[in-house]
């Protein structure tokens, strides 16, 4: 019982330490090197804690670069930890050398029997039957596809329809018309989702296919490791044996001449054999600085599919699609509209905001409301909210309705003046953090009750009058663009 409690305490401390390292190192480094760490035993007599990684290469890499940081973090969390030892899992020590087939000489499919690196991780494609390249293990089990990132969970809109259709064509049974496919999108817009979705769909269409998914950074690390171990021939043979190559964040291969050359030759070899290649980056091929011209031409020779930032309609659809996971939790329509309008930098933040809001509501027993969203998502909302001023709103509304700017503060009550003024008050409340009295002062010193009446009136008119709703939508697009 005591041992079980100690194990639980260690696991809780590791969860806190890992979260802290994720903030310090960033999502990519943490996911590649820290997340795969498994807790070993803790010897109280020597004060030594064992941490295990799945391959010799990853264990050496983490020990060389992060051992001091890991030791300090553990000593802060548990003063009785005096030494942290990073090594390879005992069961993996026998894994070495390149095995080009099974012992009986029969090759089994790439996705048969692969071992996930962590509970819940996707299966590593091509890991089981091929083993590793020396200690590095290109294609070892830590490389996998996220089971939640499929075409079924990818919401399509005008901003991403080209990329989505091209990705589905790349994964189809018939050969794609364009190769390679290059997905270009800013952070959090869905390019990695499409990469994983292609892998899943391709396996459905080609069950015995051999798939390799990696980041450009991992490609370089594995290549350098093969160079050091004089195993470049095995590296090339293994890499070119895949049927589908998925490389994410290709911008990180910038400046690595030897890795660029090897990637260039790999592209040529795979395309010559009719294999499929998909790359993803946060910029167009022509904008990749420090990349050899020959490689740029290969990356852009197929189809460059651009994913634009999600517009308001797509953000609404994404939230509504995501809500299906949380049924029967009720999220009011005004909360969905608020999140869709406010969290507009990237889809990842949008979904994360919804997840956080619903989790908080479920764990505290509170109902999801607009007030709760404003209270609990302050960091995300403030980072996304563009500082729109009431003056800017008044100027835009006056231009839209062709009324003089002075009418916003005048006492005239003609309908041609009153309605634009009420619309401007409504937009001021929706798009700025100003209170009702503050808004009233910007409209000729009007009482806060006048502003409340205007906001409620426009809200009601939007539900009954399609023209009014269209006007407000047009103004919102202008102000948020």
TrEMBL record:
InterPro entries: AAA+_ATPase, Chromosome_initiator_DnaA, Chromosome_initiator_DnaA-like, Chromosome_initiator_DnaA_CS, DnaA_C, DnaA_dom, DnaA_N_dom, DnaA_N_sf. It is found in: Cytoplasm. GO terms for cellular component: cytoplasm; plasma membrane. It comes from the Bacteria. ATP binds at residues 188, 190-192. Residues 389-458 form the Chromosomal replication initiator DnaA C-terminal domain. Domain I is involved in oligomerization and binding regulators, domain II is flexibile and of varying length in different bacteria, domain III forms the AAA+ region, while domain IV binds dsDNA. This is Chromosomal replication initiator protein DnaA. It comes from Novosphingobium kunmingense.
């Amino acid at each position: 019982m005591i041992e079980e409690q100690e194990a639980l305490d260690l696991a809780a401390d590791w969860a806190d330490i890992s979260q802290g390292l994720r903030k310090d190192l960033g999502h990519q480094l943490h996911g590649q090197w820290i997340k795969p760490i498994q807790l070993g035993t803790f010897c109280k007599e020597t004060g030594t804690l064992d941490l295990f990684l799945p391959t010799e290469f990853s264990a050496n890499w983490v020990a060389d670069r992060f051992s001091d940081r890991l030791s300090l973090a553990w000593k802060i969390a548990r003063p009785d930890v005096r030494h942290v030892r990073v090594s390879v899992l005992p069961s993996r020590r026998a894994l070495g050398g390149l095995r080009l087939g099974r012992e009986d000489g029969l090759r089994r499919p790439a996705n048969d029997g692969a071992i996930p690196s962590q509970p819940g991780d996707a299966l590593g494609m091509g890991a089981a039957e091929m083993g590793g390249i020396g200690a590095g293990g290109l294609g070892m089990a830590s490389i996998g596809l996220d089971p939640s990132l499929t075409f079924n969970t990818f919401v399509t809109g005008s901003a991403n329809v080209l990329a989505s259709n091209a990705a589905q064509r790349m994964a189809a049974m018939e050969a794609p018309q364009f190769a390679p496919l290059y997905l270009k999108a800013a952070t959090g817009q869905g390019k990695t989702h499409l990469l994983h979705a292609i892998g899943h769909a391709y396996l459905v269409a080609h069950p015995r296919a051999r798939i390799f998914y990696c980041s450009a950074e991992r490609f370089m690390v594995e290549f350098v490791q093969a160079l050091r171990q004089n195993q470049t021939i095995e590296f090339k043979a293994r890499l070119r044996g895949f049927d589908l190559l998925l490389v994410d964040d290709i911008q990180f291969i910038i400046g690595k001449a030897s890795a660029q050359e090897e990637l260039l030759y790999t592209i040529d070899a795979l395309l010559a054999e009719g294999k499929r290649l998909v790359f993803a980056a946060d910029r167009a091929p022509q904008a990749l600085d420090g990349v050899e011209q020959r490689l740029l031409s290969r990356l852009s020779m197929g189809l460059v599919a651009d994913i634009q930032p999600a517009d308001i309609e797509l953000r609404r659809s994404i939230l509504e699609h995501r809500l299906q996971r949380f049924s029967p939790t009720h999220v009011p329509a005004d909360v969905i509209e608020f999140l869709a309008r406010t969290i507009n930098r990237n889809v990842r933040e949008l979904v994360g905001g919804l997840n956080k809001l619903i989790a908080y509501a479920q764990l505290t027993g509170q109902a999801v409301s607009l007030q709760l969203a404003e209270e609990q998502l302050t960091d995300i909302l403030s980072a996304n909210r563009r500082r729109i001023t009431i003056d800017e709103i008044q100027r835009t509304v006056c231009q839209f309705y062709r009324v003089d700017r002075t009418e916003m503060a005048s006492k005239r009550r003609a309908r041609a003046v009153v309605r634009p003024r009420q619309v401007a008050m409504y937009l001021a409340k929706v798009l700025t953090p100003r209170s009702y009295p503050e808004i009233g002062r910007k409209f000729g010193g009007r009482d806060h009750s006048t502003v409340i009446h205007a906001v409620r009136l426009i809200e009601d008119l939007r539900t009954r009058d399609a023209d009014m709703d269209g006007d407000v939508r047009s103004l919102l697009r202008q102000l948020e663009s």
